[in-house]
Design a protein that fits this description.
By secondary structure, the protein is an alpha/beta fold. Helices cover about 40% and strands about 10% of the residues. It contains 13 helices and nine strands. The longest helix is centred in the last third of the chain and has 30 residues, at about 475-505.
Length: about 500
């Protein structure tokens, strides 16, 4: 600006005439939209020839240290570049005489760039010199500006696709279980699910479940009175639960602490060989030891089922034709048999843990299949509440629900109740309505086994807490539970099996 003012003063002093300035020429670069500046180059090859060039930051390129000028020389070249630009932008004087106009000077100038543009150019050049690497200084990390990540990644066809992360086995299994349960619940019915965590939730069922406690044989149905008395006597005294011929092994195992062993010994042999008795005793001892380990290590329900409860059922069905036991924890109730409540909701509950079934020769498979063909189409697959393969043609004669020490007995009663309601729904369609046969059930909480009875009445279902059988924490308790299971199986053979076969006959 000082040079321009000086030049104008010289023109006036020379007496030149002022001409109207021509149409100013605006460089094309100024008319373009500013573009985003790319990363600056490490080294500027030569100073810019014209300030009208774009001020976009040059791209960075890699150079060797030998090509880099020292900082002082680089700064001097930058200042020279600014001076060169200023010299190119100085105004020019053009004098001419106009006809009829004397003593007037005509001035033609090129418009100088604004001061702000010059200052911006200088700052750009100075900033560009800050990225020059000085070989004489120690390299230090530079702070980079944060760049916002793109909204969507742009795939590169020349690069290898990212690997697909697969879940662990436990995560995959848990995901499959969740998807299976969600799919089951979505296809079961369009109605909502009612939470069933307490027994009070079952009082609003279409056929409500009423909890009862048996204090004597008069509190249980007639068809299970004898069964109730026999197991009650076992639970009170455990008389004769240890078979004759194994007393020596039992004494050695107890280290002489069982002074009243004779009260628990049977008076007559049971027909088993000494080797069979020793194998049975070893099984009872392992069950007791695993019970102690599960308590000490605070194991969860699956470990209890595998190490303790299933081993007891294995000993109980051993040598009894037609009896089998299955872990049905992951089985599902058929949607047509899921019980509902008075609010139009379906009761939400999982299956029980174990089921003891009765098959050939006591229940011929052909008889079951012939009866199922007369059932509604969707119920022709099974005689039980679930179409799990082992349950299709073998009726469940004993349902068992297990809980770890922190599982809670009420939750176990709820699951037993939901299973019983679904089973009665099936038996009503298959045999008779209401079902005249009482169903035995077992609830195992921690190491303690309890016997329940379920009976189907005209307007409600009774769930009867009958007998506290015993515990697997000691050897006498293990033998007591084993004997109680055998008593139940004998009742099944004599009472339940004939009733079921009679119900399978065509009408």
């Amino acid at each position: 600006m000082d040079c321009t003012n000086t030049w104008l003063a010289d023109v006036h002093a020379a007496g030149g005439d002022l001409e109207p300035p021509p149409k100013p020429e605006i460089p094309a670069e100024y008319l373009q939209k500013p573009r985003r500046r790319p990363a600056p180059e490490t080294y500027l090859a030569s100073p810019p020839s014209c300030i009208c060039a774009s001020f976009a930051r040059p791209k960075r390129r890699r150079v060797v240290l030998s090509e880099i000028d020292p900082p002082n020389q680089k700064r001097q070249r930058s200042l020279n570049a600014v001076a060169h630009v200023m010299s190119q932008r100085s105004p020019t004087r053009k004098s001419s005489r106009q006809t009829g106009t004397a003593g007037k000077a005509r001035i033609t100038t090129k418009e100088a760039p604004p001061v702000e543009d010059v200052i911006a150019a200088v700052e750009h050049i100075v900033l560009g010199t800050q990225h020059v690497i000085d070989p004489n200084t120690t390299p230090r990390p530079t702070r980079q500006k944060r760049v916002a990540p793109p909204a969507l990644p742009i795939p590169d066809p020349h690069t290898r696709p990212a690997p697909i992360l697969t879940p662990s086995v436990s995560e995959e299994q848990a995901g499959e279980d969740t998807e299976a349960e969600s799919a089951h619940e979505s296809t079961t019915s369009k109605r909502s699910r009612s939470p069933t965590r307490r027994m009070v939730d079952l009082k609003v069922a279409k056929k409500p479940v009423v909890s009862k406690t048996a204090t004597s044989s008069t509190d249980v149905p007639q068809d299970v009175k004898t069964l109730y008395k026999t197991i009650q006597a076992l639970a009170r005294r455990s008389k004769g639960v240890i078979p004759l011929g194994i007393e020596t092994e039992v004494k050695q195992d107890s280290n002489g602490d069982l002074d009243d062993l004779e009260d628990y010994m049977a008076k007559t042999p049971n027909g088993k060989t000494h080797e069979e008795l020793k194998d049975e005793f070893k099984g009872m001892r392992d069950i007791r030891n695993e019970t102690s380990a599960c308590k000490t290590k605070h194991l969860h329900e699956p470990s209890w089922n595998e190490l303790v409860h299933s081993q007891m059922l294995k000993q109980a069905v051993l040598g009894r034709p037609g009896f089998s036991y299955y872990n049905i924890t992951t089985a599902r109730v058929i949607k047509e048999l899921v019980p509902g409540n008075e609010y139009g909701e379906l009761l939400k509950g999982k299956m029980i843990d174990f089921a003891v079934t009765l098959g050939p020769p006591l229940i011929p498979t052909a008889n079951v299949i012939n009866r199922l063909t007369a059932s509604p189409r969707k119920l022709q697959r099974t005689c039980n509440p679930s179409d799990y393969s082992p349950l299709c043609y073998e009726p469940a004669v004993l349902g068992i629900e297990t809980k770890s020490p922190d599982g809670g007995s009420e939750n176990g009663e709820v699951q037993l109740s939901v299973w019983t309601m679904a089973y009665f729904n099936r038996l009503r369609q298959l045999i008779q309505d209401p079902v005249s046969m009482t169903l035995p059930l077992l609830l195992v909480v921690d190491a303690r086994w309890k016997l329940y009875f379920a009976s189907d009445l005209a307007h409600e279902i009774h769930l009867i807490d009958a007998v506290d059988i015993g515990t697997t924490a000691d050897i006498i308790g293990c033998y007591t539970i084993l004997e109680a299971l055998r008593v139940i199986f004998k009742w099944v053979e004599e009472i339940y099996s004939p009733w079921f076969l009679e119900g399978l006959k065509p009408e």
